[in-house]
Amino acid sequence: xxxxxxxxxxxxxxxxxxxxxxxxxxxxxxxxxxxxxxxxxxxxxxxxxxxxxxxxxxxxxxxxxxxxxxxxxxxxxxxxxxxxxxxxxxxxxxxxxxxxxxxxxxxxxxxxxxxxxxxxxxxxxxxxxxxxxxxxxxxxxxxxxxxxxxxxxxxxxxxxxxxxxxxxxxxxxxxxxxxxxxxxxxxxxxxxxxxxxxxxxxxxxxxxxxxxxxxxxxxxxxxxxxxxxxxxxxxxxxxxxxxxxxxxxxxxxxxxxxxxxxxxxxxxxxxxxxxxxxxxxxxxxxxxxxxxxxxxxxxxxxxxxxxxxxxxxxxxxxxxxxxxxxxxxxxxxxxxxxxxxxxxxxxxxxxxxxxxxxxxxxxxxxxxxxxxxxxxxxxxxxxxxxxxxxxxxxxxxxxxxxxxxxxxxxxxxxxxxxxxxxxxxxxxxxxxxxxxxxxxxxx
Length: 443
Hints:
- The chain is an alpha+beta fold.
- The protein is built from nine helices and 25 strands.
- The N terminus is likely disordered.
């Protein structure tokens, strides 16, 4: 009988006593050990036996400011300087500091700012996804002042937040040092949207007899995308080859050449960026290449397919070895081609180089892999395929950061256009901003 009474009391406790929200118990760093306190600053570590040395040095920072220094010695150590700042929920704040490192192999991973919005009891607050607002990791910026690099970003404070906890880290290093300077937490204007209209053409030439005829057949679809104010249009793979019974070497051409001239003229006419897959001839080598033409009609850049399937190997195609990313007037664009999607390293290298959008001409392939590449790299992926729509196989369209296909080709000849905001932060339940975390936590 006692066992049943005990069980009943446990059930009553479970249903009637409110439990803390997930993550609240560790919200404010209660898992840390405080090893030093100096005014508003505390020095913290995970474990006493991996504690680095901490110091605040006057006039050693950027432009004579104070430096908040963390030094690791003979074994791997980690720790952070910590301070909490009052803020007003629902307002935007710019969080930034300047960083100088010595003998840190990967500052991206080891010398980071962590920002956590809290309530007046130092608990995590509700975020936008009906979940707790997770810690944030401001970006490394391209701003340098000598060997000082700016780290910073602008955030919207959750409505229930009253303070933000800033941690200036050195982690996972030995015999190295970081100095932090000029930390600022200041009100800032909201980040303006950075909207771009991404387009895919779902079209496959057939019954034509030359590379030129194939090129010509795409012109009406580019024009149709332009009527929908497309900023970037992605066309298919090896489009000078498909459907005309020619071989790779028969249609291969130099860059610049006939295709860059043709598609450059279209891009300039319609004031947009244009991605087209062609066969490139360089010396005696043939490459499966995507070109990116700009709205001025000039070649912005090219990408040579790195991963070749057996058909292209047998056809005498040579692989590329580079992962370029190109600046456009709306953001950073990379390219990959078809079989590349089966290898996560390709999209990862392109994303690591800064791509926000990846254009992917693709003959055919597994759409689950396109979805995975978009999610795991937090990029928009624009695909243009020759796969018939009725087949449960690759799709022409635009995949978002959640791997959702925002628009999809339903029939040959479809032109698919969707507007996205490259400045919009995608917050995932339980994990927060994956783009920020991937940048700080990936190998």
